[in-house]
Specification:
22 strands; 11 helices; FAD/NAD(P)-binding domain; 2 domains; 452 residues; alpha+beta
Amino acid sequence: MTIVEQEQQLTVLETADVCVLGGGTTGVMAAIRAARMGAKVVLVEQQGNFGGNATSGMVCAWHTMMDFDFKKQIISGLSEEFLERLKKRNALRVVDPDWLGHPSRMAKISTYIFNTQELKIECDEMLREAGVIPYLHTVFCKPYVTRGRLQGVIVESKNGRQAILADFFIDATGDGDLAYRLGVPCWENQGKQPSTTAALVTGYTYVTNPKKILLDHLQEYNLPNLGWDTNYVNAPEVRHLLKTNVFESCLTAQGITKGEMEGRRQVRAMMDILNRHGDSDRELVLLSLSSSIGIREGRHMKLGYTLTGDDVCSGKRFEDAVGNGSYPIDIHHADKPGCTFWYLNGMTEYELDGYPHEISWWKPRSEDYPRYYQIPYRSLLPDKWENLLVCGRAMDADTRAYGAIRVMINLNQTGEAAGEAAALCLRENVGNRELDMKLLRSELAKGGSIVL
């Protein structure tokens, strides 16, 4: 069944130089970069706060900014600015990679553990300082195209249905919602990496070996397998659980609804297991749940260059590189429990929470391995639309490469690059494909990014 929506005239909510759709950390950084370049920037976010997975999803970890050997810094820019500000608020714990007690290499890589709620406020503060015009609780509906050019976006908010007009657009929605509605080609991985609902609880640390208890009762409570957990920053009585694994696709209204509800069910099931079968005389208490599910994988857009797993593993260099990374290829499996990491030095680590890690090698051991890989500007670049860039999770990468670049410390850089590029395109009066890459990389460096 279908209905016909009545045609209506819409008021213009804002007219801007740059419109950024999606207010996760990638979109926030895109907006700040463009605004610092002098552009008038509007940032649109459908939730009630900015920060995305790092705040609403309560995913509290950013990974190392160093190369594989922890000897050379390869990432900086706005990610480092945010971390420094959190540090001043006593809202950051920094892991020392040289500490000898790390149970695995992954424990060394998870360098920055932060207070997700403090990050919400830092997003507000940094956007305000940059002069970005923010809109929360505002939902993107569809693009507005005239004479073959993207001129605006239609949004819904408390004001009703309105339009935002701009000269340049950045799609930081995570699933490439704007690009998808413009007809940019895309693909979906049928074995998507699972999403995660996060929780804060008390009483967890009083249970002797909670992981074993959970593992003993997974099947009984219809739980797939366990993710990870950590102590909350400067609150040792609070445990931050990111142990759920939700396999519903979040690309449909039905799927994301089922996913949100399933994640909360899994959290309650874990609480019930530990309260019924644990040995503590203190009951676990649920303090908070993430306000949105943490999506690992959604829609992948086909853009100017598909970054490949071979590019990552070989540390391929790009003349238009706009980001660097050393995080391993990380696959949270859809067809079996646990996850597997492929490291740049050739080591493979299979991790299943509660069990010893299994180590093997995907290539012969050698000191001749890349210390980092790069993300090219072309992987943000649609073929047709000259005033659009796609950053964040929806950028163009194959399944293996995506497993490496999808973490926030990497994707933040794509947001910064998109914001810088958008402002430069307007300043130089060129389309996104005509932008001088030497100029872009130079301006990124001036803004604090590490350009290699």
